[in-house]
Amino acid sequence: MSPKPGATKPAARNTAARAKAQAPRPAVTKEEKVSATTTTAGDAHAGSVPKDVSLKLFRFMKLTRETEDRIERKLYRQGKIVGGCYVGRGQEGITIGCVAALQEKDVIFPSHRDMGAFIMRGMPLVTIFAQYLGRADTPTRGKDGNAHLGDVSLGLINYVSHLADNVPIAAGAALAFKHRGEPRISINFLGEGSTSRGDFYEGLNFAAIHKLPVVYIVNNNQWAYATPVERQMPVKNVADRAPAFNIPGVIVDGNDVEAVYLAAMEAFERARSGGGPTLIECKTFRMTGHSAHDDAGYVPKEQFEIWAKKDPIIRMERRLRERGWIDDKYVGDMDGEIKKSVEEAAEIALGMPLPDGSETLNGVFTTPYRVKDVFPWRQTEEYKSIVIKKEKA
Amino acid sequence: MALSTYISAISQALREEMEADERVYCLGEDIALYGGAFRVTEGFLDQFGEGRMIDTPIAESQIIGTAIGSALMGMRPVAEMQFMDFISCGFDQLTQYAATSRYRWDVPCPIVVRGPSGGGVHGGPFHSQNNEMWFAQTPGLKVVCPGTAYDAKGLMKAAIRDDDPVLYFEHKYLYRRIKEELPTDDYIVPLGKGIVRRPGNTITLVTYAAMQYVALEAAEVLKHDGIELEIIDLRSIAPLDSDLVVESIKKTHKVILLHEDQAFGGISGELSARIAEEAMEYLDGPIRRITPPNTHVPYSPPLEEAFMPNAKDVVYVARELANY
């Protein structure tokens, strides 16, 4: 007897729902195929970006890649970096293209895929490695890890894991600039995943009402951890949301660093001259798992293959060679210099001391205040002599 | 000298700090053109202009987030929550971002988030909450709950000048019910310091905000029984001045903890633990708590009356404890 409508058991319904959810999604859309073949060829920006800028973009992308490779593929895999480990492989062009378009006093609210911002702004590589390694002499003193870093003097604002928090916060920084009549802007990098949160809408709304000098750059890498973009949003593009705030929404090929740079220059100038915020969506792809522990087995292999061909560094190198601006020697020398500086910085950081446990109690408040030590007995010989035997499972 | 209400003391503090420090500005819902739902910032728009009096959309997370961003860039924002009940919409910005900033990277986040809390005005479940403990539990946030006009002014000034994020819980029942003479000189009330509101030697009664008037009322009855309450107004919930409480208990040997927040997770729980840890041998009776039941704040007058601790409760419990 076939079940009556509505008489389906909950378990069966769940199974059906799961089957639907897990139905194979197209590995590669038609558009991706087209763009993979069209955007990697030609030189659309020849003459638009000065040579020195283009070479700088290239170099910083490479330096960022090498730094993050050292972090994720060496130090993390060697067990020297504990906890989660996030990198922005494949997305370097977005950060570098935007940061290169900034002026000195501007401030950056980065995300965990924006290592390039720290490097380009002059945060020493040693500090970056030391931070990942939980060392004492870092801006966080070992209290936070990964690129949860910042230095106000470099215009780099430390972020929290709740990334969309930065949307109204970056607006707040811009509000301060506008209020004081300073010609500064703030920029905020976020992923398409962050655009699902209410703070994204609240922040953009406020920034748009007051025409604040802030630019939001969304790296749409198509995956929020294991959730594909079509399960995150009902619109095709993040930029489609801009009209709701009556601000420009711009879509850029995020793997073309010069395209990003040019889009950023335009948006930053608009923000600086009182034209208000812009929402820039950079189409890209997360060429890693969410974190180093994640093999991204849920991402169709073909997507990685397609996007590997669109790698921002490879594309830029080909383009610069075609323009005759670099050759084998240039690239070889640069690679050697980058490798050496990364290697040296990592070695120095590995030799730096870990923080003392007592550091845990410091820094909760700015005014003199030390948290009560709840383990005063830990300094006693009696405590130190206690041995806890772990039973074998 | 003119008398100042509690709410006028808050306005005075804000105005004086804005006059003294260009970095101080206010943002919130209906605060500029309208002057605030309770008129705390009435007239401020004319005096300070719209650059420093910012009306925001109804978006608490944005209000607090924007305050944070501007504070990181050197401003001193005072954000109003129209009712402290609505602060839940900005919870993430406060507990995750503002609270951790100093600890994470040594960068202070000097914001003040202020607004009316508390019951007794038939505001119902969403306009009466005492939700200070949601934040007191988070390291890095300072939480103050002034109970007098003097403290309201002094704590506001201290909060604005402090480099850490401060949550300033006004008690709306007190807004226009109490009036005091205030000093004409500039003064602050230090954050994290309680005060003995009424000296006594029979029982220590620890409270804060509006409940201290309930305690004072009860003390006037109890003194005829020979019971002298020593009433401590905590003023700040975080940091918590438990030393003052412990010192008083060493003298009285008995303690009642009274507040308008519920018992479960209320500050009386933490205080009880500290008293047990630090003054156990001084106690001659059980630690007693007087708080509302663990329910929401009801609307209808008989219900809110049934909910709220009153002076008779204090008299009853104090007599019982005195005879213990």
Please characterize this protein's 3D structure.
Chain A has one domain: Rossmann fold, CATH 3.40.50. In chain A, 40% of the residues lie in helices and 8% in strands. Chain A contains 13 helices and 7 strands. Chain A has a 5-stranded parallel β-sheet, with helices on both faces. Chain A has a two-stranded antiparallel ribbon with strand order 4-5. Chain B folds into 2 domains: 179 residues, Rossmann fold; 128 residues, 3-Layer(aba) Sandwich (Rossmann fold), CATH 3.40.50.920. In chain B, 37% of the residues lie in helices and 18% in strands. Chain B is built from 11 helices and 14 strands. Chain B has a 7-stranded mixed β-sheet, with helices on both faces. In chain B, helix 2 links the parallel strand 2 and strand 3. Chain B is globular, with a radius of gyration of 20 Å. In chain B, 58% of the residues are buried. The model of chain B has no long low-confidence stretch (mean pLDDT 97). Classes of the chains: A alpha/beta (393), B alpha/beta (324). The interface between A and B is large, with 45 and 45 residues.
